[in-house]
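user:
I keep going back and forth on a fold encoding question. Separate attempts, laid side by side, tell us more than any discussion would. Would you put together a sequence-and-structure record for a protein of your own picking? Write it directly below this note and I will take it from there.

assistant:
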Amino acid sequence: QVQVVESGGGLVQAGGSLRLSCTVSGLTFDDYAMGWFRQAPGKEREGVSYITWGGGTTYYADFVKGRFTISRDNTKNTLYLRMNSLKPEDTAMYYCAAGTTVQALGGVTGPDYWGQGTQVTVSS
């Protein structure tokens, strides 16, 4: 049974930082590309950042470039998202997901596995 568990969300003031973590079990972690998505109230879920299985290539949505950093530790089956210079518009539920490739994560195929999400709230 695959489990994807996010943590690290919370309430932070604008300009602050948070680090999200995502621990995965029940699959061979380094066989999967990983990604972070988010969904704000009343909006569709959107891709935030993706990383290849080995961590060598990363992708970022334009709205987080230069502020967020995705990374992974395959020895710990854990994905991270470091979020700096947070803005109120970053407020959302953040989801971790695993997929066969980054193209699948961001494309029609979509992820194979999702976490339950962790809430990030940025106050102005």
